[in-house]
Amino acid sequence: MKQTMHIVISGIVQGVGYRKFTKSKADELGIKGSVRNLENFSVEIYANGEFEILESFISILKIGPQRAVVEEVETSIVSKIDFKDFSILGD
């Protein structure tokens, strides 16, 4: 069953290609949603997909791209949001 997760990644995750990395991995896994930078220097992700695939996605996000340093990953299941694809929001 598809679910939507809200994910916030904290650490050194801006200016290191984290949003592009997230989109690439989401596209590979068939996850729909969005990723954007937050003002507090974290990254916010909404991801819609099968629960098992979302778990794999989160494991990948915990590692991040080479220059990232992921310090914290917060996740919560939210009301289902329908996305057409996976988008990078913001600049």
Protein architecture, described:
The chain has a single domain, classed as Alpha-Beta Plaits (2-Layer Sandwich), CATH 3.30.70.100. Helix 1 packs antiparallel against helix 2 (51-63). It has helices spanning 18-29, 51-63, and strands spanning 2-12, 32-37, 43-50, 69-78, 86-88. The protein has a 5-stranded mixed sheet with strand order 4-1-3-2-5, covered by helices on one side. A hairpin with a 5-residue loop joins strand 2 (32-37) and strand 3. It contains 2 helices and 5 strands. The longest helix is centred in the middle third of the chain and has 13 residues, at 51-63. By secondary structure, it is of the alpha+beta class.
Question: What's the CATH class, please?
Answer: Alpha Beta
User: Mind summarizing the main beta sheet?
Assistant: 5 strands, mixed
Instruction: Estimate the helix proportion, in percent.
Output: 25-40%
Strand line-up of the largest beta sheet: 4-1-3-2-5
The helix/strand order is EHEEHEE
Count of DSSP strands: 5
Q: How many structural domains does the protein architecture include?
A: 1
Query: Which regions contain 5 or more consecutive residues with pLDDT less than 50?
Result: none
Q: What's the rounded overall pLDDT mean?
A: 96
Categorize the overall geometry: globular
Instruction: Quote the beta fraction.
Output: 35-45%
EC number: 3.6.1.7
Domain Acylphosphatase-like: 4-90
Active site: 19, 37
GO molecular function: acylphosphatase activity
